[in-house]
Structures are given as structure tokens and as C-alpha cells.
Amino acid sequence: GPTRKMPLTASAMDFFQLFVPDNVLKNMVVQTNMYAKKYQERFGSDDAWIDVTLTEMKAFLGYMISTSIHHCESVLSIWSSGFYSNKSIALIMTQSRFEKILKYFHIVAFRSSQTTHGLYKIQPFLDSLQNGFDSAFRPSQAQVLHEPLIDEDPVFIATCTERELRKRKKRKFSLWVRQCSSTGFICQIYVHLKEGSGADGLDALKNKPQLHSMVAKSLCQNASGKNYIIFTGPSITSLNLFEEFEKQGIYCCGLLSARKSDCTGLPPSMLNNPETPPSRGQYRIRMKGNMSLICWYNKGHFRFLTNAYSPVQQG
């Protein structure tokens, strides 16, 4: 559960700032104003622009977040007279001011000479979120690794041409999380870029088991020695990965698929379906040390690999 007790008077903003404190927001203000200044030096002055303030930055992010809570085709719908309009929050900032901040908004305005990572523009924000995840909450023992669904970004949809919209749908990243099974709290995030060469680029994508193993290790880098039980889907489950995690004091339970999983080291007899389907409820077990491979039949074959649970324990 939570590591600190919030007062009964705490607002939604107080909880938000457990993860995005004022120093991160102030940095956004500085970087946005810095970018606006450099942009105007290069392309000409913008008489309608005045430096953004901390209060405006909070309101700007509030508008962005509102599109996730109240689904609409564009954040600009807030100021419209249509179905998605929201007069109560439209009064906080004008649409023209919002669009100006959107034009210049930056978390990191300029790349340093030492920067090589593709996420450099948002890395301080990701780091702040991760620090908040680590300090604000103690997760339960059972956790899950997965790739959550991400809705299409609604901010620019209304102003996109059809061609730009098609290009946007080819998302250039994937987001993975380690999440507490009891509460849904996200403990760790990992953003994978799908472009570029190297260990985490397109070359790695061609080898899916290698990629998913790398994702799992990144998500569990702070989980060593804490006796966690990590649940995984077929794309991550593998004998080699589970054995490596066990040495670090991390235990696993994962669904297996002959098509999606890395089945290296597992007995083929347990992965092949018999010609005559077994009766419902029948199961087979193979064990190696603490590791168990279980094949159970319901309306189809259901296989999973685990070193966290005894395969013969009742209940």
C-alpha cells in the first residue's frame, strides 16, 4: 500500500504531485520559454507570445490529461460548442493561449553533445515518474509484466490530414509496465523505441524472444531479492529467463505458447498436442529442480511454466 498517509483535505493535484513535483513542472516552464526564445530568434518574433508561467503549465497539462478522462476527438473540442465541449474548464485558459503553449512546449529543449538516447526529450519526466512510483507505494508480492493498450493520441487528430493520420498510426515506440496485481499500481515503466540500430532498435525486433527478455530484465531491475512473483504472458515466458530471475530472488509464473514463447530447453513432448484430446481437467507435469511445466486441458491445451508454486499442492 501507500508509504505515506495523505491528509483528508488532499486534492487530486496533491496526489499528482507525488509523481510530478513542482521542480519538474518548473523545468518544463524554463525549457518551454527557452525553446520559444530560440525559435523566434531563428524564424521571427511572435508578438502573441508571452512567457508561460507555472500556473499556466499546470493548466496546460490538466487539459492534456482531461482528454484521457473524457474521451474526445481532440483537446480543442473543450472550447467548441459541440458535444465534447466543457465550459467549466474552458474558462481557465483561452484556446489561442493553449495552442501557443502547445507550439513551444518542451521538457528538454535542446540536445546536449553527450546525448545519444532517443528518449532524451522526455527522459527527465520519465525519471520523475519512476522516482514517484518507487517512493510512494509498496506493491504486493504478485506482479505482472505486460504491454498496456495505448489509445491514439487525441491532441492533434482534429488538425491532421488523412495522410498524417495514417503515418501516426505506425507508432514508433512500445510501452511496457510492471504492475501490482492486487491494486493495479504501476511499479516500473519501460519505453522501447522501434527505430535505429543496436541492442534496442529494429535489429532486436527481428528477434522477438531476445527483445522481450531484454524488456523483462529492464522492468525487473529493481526487483532483485524481494521475493516477488512475476506473472508473464507467452511472449516473455522462457526457461532461460526464469532461471536467470531465480538466481536474483525473483520467482515467475508464465503462460506458454509453442508459437509465441521461447521454448528452448523445454521437453517437446509437453509442447506437442496428442492426437486424441484428453478429457477435460486432465493435466501433465514435468519438473526440473524448482521449475514446473504444467499442461492442463480444458476446451484446449493450457500450458504454463512456474518456479513460484508447487504443481502438486491442492487448492
TrEMBL record:
InterPro entries: PGBD, PGBD5. Residues 11-310 form the PiggyBac transposable element-derived protein domain. Pfam families: DDE_Tnp_1_7. GO terms for molecular function: transposase activity. GO terms for cellular component: nucleus. GO terms for biological process: non-replicative DNA transposition. This is PGBD5 protein. It comes from Syrrhaptes paradoxus.
